[in-house]
Amino acid sequence: MNRLIIAFVFIIVSVTSLAQYNYDFNKNCTDAYSLALSLKFEEAQKLINKEKHINPDNNIPYLVENYIYFLKVFIGEEESVFEELDDKKDDIIDRLEDGDEDSPYYNYSLAQVYLQWAFARTKFKEYFTAAVEINRAYRKLESNDEKFPDFLPDKINLGLLHTMIGTIPDSYNWVKKLVGVEGTVNQGTNEILKVLDASLKDKKYEHFKAECLFYLSFIKLNMSTDKGKALDYINLITGNDSDTSYMSSPLTIYAMARIYMGNGMNEKALNLLLKRPKGKEYYPFHYLDYLTGLAKLQNLDEDANLYFLRFLEEFKGINYIKAAYQKIAWYYAVNGNDFMYKEYIAKIPENGYDIADADKQAEREAERDVVPNAVLLKARLLFDGGYYERAMKVLTTENKNFLRDERDSLEYTYRLGRIYHGWGKIDDAVPYYLQTIKNGSESEYYYAANAALQLGLIYEKRKDFQKAKIYYEKARSMKNKEYKNSIDQKAKAGLSRIEDK
User: Fold this and answer.
1) Cα-Cα-Cα-Cα dihedral sign, residues 21, 152, 227, 186
2) Tell me: the pLDDT tens digits for 100-129?
3) In angstroms, rounded to a whole number, what is the distance separating the alpha carbons of residues 265 and 62?
4) Measured distance CA(275)–CA(253) in Å, rounded
5) pLDDT single digits (tens) 195-249
6) Does 2.60.120 match the CATH number of domain 17-248?
7) 373-501: which CATH architecture?
8) Same fold, 17-248 and 373-501
9) Model pTM score
């Protein structure tokens, strides 16, 4: 009897160990995937649960479920949620590891989970673990690419990895060594474009369109010489005039608003943000309130401060807290209320974290304890909004007596260069950039470093790659403390783009 029981158990265990889950990206899964990317997590979860019940051997619903976990952590930035879902992520990995290893979705799914959680960890400064997970993801994607070279979904994550690795500043080279990945911005962009092209032509891949466009918009906006190129993606997102489905996705609204704001089209961004979808069916994306406040501040609107206040009241995450207090302080500074400026700038040291560049810069402004020059600040905000003529009027109709010190004088020449540059009057911009570099190359402020970066972009666009290289390297060599990581990353991306030219 004992032998029979042992034999029976052995058979059961053997059969169980041979069981492999499959991968069926069917309609339930594609619909759940689209709902997840639209931040309609409850609706997405209902479809995921339905698919798990109907097709218990299908692994795709577990992959889509991880998208929900990742987006909750990445957007919400709440540590308690991160810890709770990190445990659930382990269950998803266990399930995916029991999948069919002969399917291209086996390595792809695991790589996707590792990659998403690596990015989530960076929000909480878990850089070492993130690097380890990126390494795991890359190895699986690399293996898959060799085994299934025609499997297009891999190209999205490979493209993202190759792009990001190509822009890592030298000070973080230990990450590159630990990850073991090499790549360039151009390589990564082309890989994602390949999937986007397939999503537009082949129904089998159409559900990847939104994800591709989101990544490409980010890359073009932050790592490309031609930010205007990102506007092309807006046309792909919006489709024909009668199709307004894109308005149902806060993530898409975010991407489009960032593209518009990055191209000096503040009014279009503001219109989108004010019409964005809201309601209980959407997971709260509080950063969009911050972005709306910023767009309103750049137009010098009277109610800009209210959106930052709402963000501070409702957001429970980590980033942009200090920056929000700074922007409220700016609101009062440009309106001539120095008392309220000081009240809000004093809140920065005791609130938030200094991880994001915007928060670091806000912290430095609070430490400096000097009310900003209202004229220069007003010109900066108008420039950021793309209101170049208004910005120039602010600077040129005022008597230069508003310049109080060396920093003001440095910002003045820098700001004139930026306004002329944004206005398309490049030849007028160059002398002001050069003057800023001459006067501020040893300064801790960001003006000279960013002036060098802008000259690099100008000469790259003119195909004078030798001069572009000189100014990109100059931008990286500056001693600025403000926006250091951001400027270095963009300069590194520029050097990566012109490497073989």
Assistant:
1) positive
2) 999 999 999 999 999 899 888 888 888 888
3) 40
4) 9
5) 988 988 888 888 888 888 878 877 776 666 566 777 777 777 776 555 566 678 8
6) no
7) Alpha Horseshoe (1.25)
8) yes
9) 0.85
